[in-house]
Amino acid sequence: MNDTIAAISTALGESGIAIIRISGPDAVNVSGHILTRKIFDEPGRMYLTGLIDSGKNIIDRVLAVHFMRPKSYTGEDIVEIHTHGGMLIAKLCLELALTNGARLAEPGEFTRRAFINGRIDLSQAEGVLGIIKSRSIEALHASARTLTGELSRTAQKIHDDILALQGSIEIQLDFPEGEVLNTLDIHSGIREVIHELEELLSRCSAGMILRDGIRVVIAGSPNAGKSSLMNAILGKKRAIVAEIAGTTRDIIDENIIINGIPVTLTDTAGLRESNDVIESEGVRLAIEAMNDSDICLYVIDSSREIYDSELEYMNEILNRGVKIIIVFSKSDLDTITHDLNVKCEKIFVSSKTGAGIEELKTKIYSMACDNSSVNEGLNVSVRQMEEIRGSLEALRECESCHDEDVIAGLLNSSRVSLLRVLGVNADDELLDSMFSRFCVGK
How many CB atoms lie within 10 A of CB 193? Predict the structure, then answer.
């Protein structure tokens, strides 16, 4: 970390400005060689100066600012040069910085230095990535909560509670002649921490849904109204609708935001036996899509009797653990009373009149959240979720255990998992894997 790095931190193109960031012990010296005016009399102040090439020719009028260590983003001296937008001038500025002693930054290296220098912990660093990848305002809020340390503070507090419980047990193990440990109090304390971890896991689950979204697959028999339903949910014509059964032969994907949750909505071919090779392939893809979905909207024409094959398909999907909402379509026509003995959500809709469509969206949202509040969601990575789950599982094992040695070991495992969430003792392999997902310049 003794070298100085540089990169373009804004997207290349015809933007209003481009920002070139230089960070490291030699950042001030590097920028001094390529700017006409010294900008370091008052750190944090933006200066108007000139960008000069190797021949001392001014090639742009720029704004430059110096952020002094250790209170900068990376914890090092940082100089930012704001050029006019455009690919050529931004690249020239970067080349000048590299020629005068900096090296090109690796993906995520600025944020990695912020972590190494103690400006942020690993969960906050992953919050930065969440902000970059947010696809909705709600996802952005979840990432901001993580970036500002809400996840870190919660995980640290739970860690400290576990440490206190572990300490009580280990004192008793080290000094057995002392006061007898009240195991009822220990188990009561463990249950309290389990409740805290369950709440944290719920908030993190909501955050992952906000960031990654869900896949909702529309399935059902031919001519049940699947494509019409997709168009009604989207509020536009996306899928071809026709009276001819089997019109949809392929998978059709479209993205939509439902109450802040990114949803990939998928229309599929009608489910039926067919000698047509192309239609059979469409049915195979439809079944594959249903099995991989988070929620399946199984569409049934409410104006006719239910086919036995529809019940078979639905039970097969349910047995695979996929959540189902049965959507009775064409409710604007004369409907039949259906005695459907399937334990899942049901709703009547009309794609023609729009009846029931907003209620269906609400059901999708509620099923996706599964009692989690997206308003309290925290952005986390898959790695962090696995560590939190591991911490919770270790505590749950403690509930039924009365061996103090075993309980102490389980508490330690639970506590160490939370330390990994925070990035304590993170190895280079983990850091390389995580920061490689960042763009260069962040």
Answer: 22
